[in-house]
Amino acid sequence: MLEQYKNKRVLITGGMGMIGSSIAHRLVELGAEVRIVDARIKPYGANDFNIKDVKEKINLYQADIRDKEKMTPLVEWSEIIFNLAGQVSHNDSIKNPFLDTEINYIGHLNVLEIAKKVNPLIKILYSGTRMQYGKVEKIPVAEDHPQRPLSPYALNKSAAENLYLFYHRIYRIPVVIFRITNPYGPRGQVKHHKYCIVNWFTRLAIENKGITIFGDGSQVRDYLFIDNLTDAFVKAGIEPAADGEVFNLGSGEGTTFKEMAKTIVDIAGSGSITHVPWPDHYINVETGDFVADISKIKKIIDWKPEISLKEGIRRTVEFYRKYMKFYL
Amino acid sequence: MLEQYKNKRVLITGGMGMIGSSIAHRLVELGAEVRIVDARIKPYGANDFNIKDVKEKINLYQADIRDKEKMTPLVEWSEIIFNLAGQVSHNDSIKNPFLDTEINYIGHLNVLEIAKKVNPLIKILYSGTRMQYGKVEKIPVAEDHPQRPLSPYALNKSAAENLYLFYHRIYRIPVVIFRITNPYGPRGQVKHHKYCIVNWFTRLAIENKGITIFGDGSQVRDYLFIDNLTDAFVKAGIEPAADGEVFNLGSGEGTTFKEMAKTIVDIAGSGSITHVPWPDHYINVETGDFVADISKIKKIIDWKPEISLKEGIRRTVEFYRKYMKFYL
């Protein structure tokens, strides 16, 4: 089935970030014609090293999804868009909700409006977040769980999701929406703890530093290895049954924060764990335990998370042992 | 209870429109200190005649809710905001979703961010729309009916509603959200048919012209007379039990389009009705029959729609017979 990607014209926005560049690698392997768009906005995830190995096989454009003029020919050219560009920090969105709205809502509106006008049959895949759910009522969390976001980031992800569904409903643009749990793995950022916490802890462990856990670390999360995530996006990109659907995308398994950190330290063979009390300003944004119910995606697209947390962390540690300097 | 408005500092954005100016009249009567903000953007509802009678008793500011500098001192001054400013046309939003988003989403984000920073105890009332529901599954429509908007206007009203709920949830700003059915009455616009259809038909009838109905006119709507609407806003403004709540605001009664038109022609004693087929581009935005379930608002605030459709139309005809020239 993945042979359909051969010579397919695919655009990846935010293509120099962890998710976009991982999808790019996969699609290049599958023979797709790949164009990457990235605005390279600091401090988001764009990293030259992420596309080093595919650079000769793709075309790279520096453009912001808010830029109508630059985006129009790119959208016109494409058959599929992995529309992954975004402001990615939950915490930064609280400080500047306007910037988050500009990028994560209006930027996506821009791409959808262009598609409607110049290329309405184009398929567009969108990356939402499990943060859209806010405080969790019961786990595992299915797609029909209420959405009560706790940050402008999550709020705009929700609003943009509705935008995608709207363009599907009214203009019949085939869209696929993923609400992603906590992704981690090669090509993610390791500079700070604001997002991609597994990657951050991996760095601390490799550097034999202390890993700080808020509270007792018993909060449960659903960590999704990048290759499992990539696999789902790539499959959904050519699966018509996914059109117009919203999917949780996670491992479907709960892991305590403590256990995640311990696994990293064990596999790295270095680093140590210390516990500190929850800072006040984190209380509001804590969602409670989270595990995604992934039965819908398993049913509709032929996908399951193949790589375990242990193996995912092993590969992550291995990657950053080799390439850490490109991510500092 | 309404005595609480005496000397209360109240800000009304979009205060020169039908809803804002009607609330202003009511609050002036109740002894509130009223400031009106209006951006006077053409072709929205601002009309000098709407505030003629209260002009000496209020303070008027020309400002856009997107304008941080102008809005900050006004938000700081207020105890209650009726935040009614907005792009008001469903159809225009389809042509320019960016402008709609700018005003109806980011404008409201701006007011909420200012409130959070300079006046977090302020109460803010917001006017959403029954259009947020999109195609109706069953009537009467309660607040938990799915929202599948059919225009950027409705989509942004939904997104902004979530914004209000977010600022309530996280920053404890007391907000009240109304999803308003089809409002009509004195001070509404009569220039075109794009919104406020009862007013438009009233004009046609008074001018003894033909009223055009798409299809057989059997589609059911919930028409809300402006004084009933005003009454609900004013009561909710001082009712703590309404804080953080979303309410349908309608008459709770279904009336066919045909019957509404006939009532206008009968009361006016002029005008005539003709039927034409539905234009193609309307099919997508037709929601099906709509009647609001208003049991929630009746239970939580001491309100019910006191004025019947017949009496409401009678007063509307009377108003425009006298004052039509100020609305042309």
Residue fraction in strands of chain A: 15-25%
Kindly report the spatial arrangement of strands forming the biggest sheet of chain A. Answer: 3-2-1-4-5-6-11
Q: What's the CATH H-level superfamily name of the domain at 2-184 and 224-252 and 291-306 in chain A?
A: NAD(P)-binding Rossmann-like Domain
According to DSSP, the number of beta strands of chain A is: 13
The secondary-structure element order of chain A is: EHEEHEHHEHEEHEEEHEEHEHHH
Distance between the termini of chain A: 38 Å
Question: What does this entry look like structurally?
Answer:
Two copies of one chain form a homodimer. Chain A is α/β, with parallel strands linked by helices and 328 residues long. The longest helix of chain A is centred in the N-terminal third of the chain and has 22 residues. Chain A is globular, with a radius of gyration of 19 Å. The relative contact order of chain A is 0.14. The mean pLDDT of chain A is 96. At the A-B interface, helix 4 and helix 5 of A face helix 4 and helix 5 of B.
Question: What is this entry, summarized?
Answer:
The structure is a homodimer of 328-residue chains. With 328 residues, the first copy, chain A, is an alpha/beta fold. Chain A is 39% helix and 18% strand.
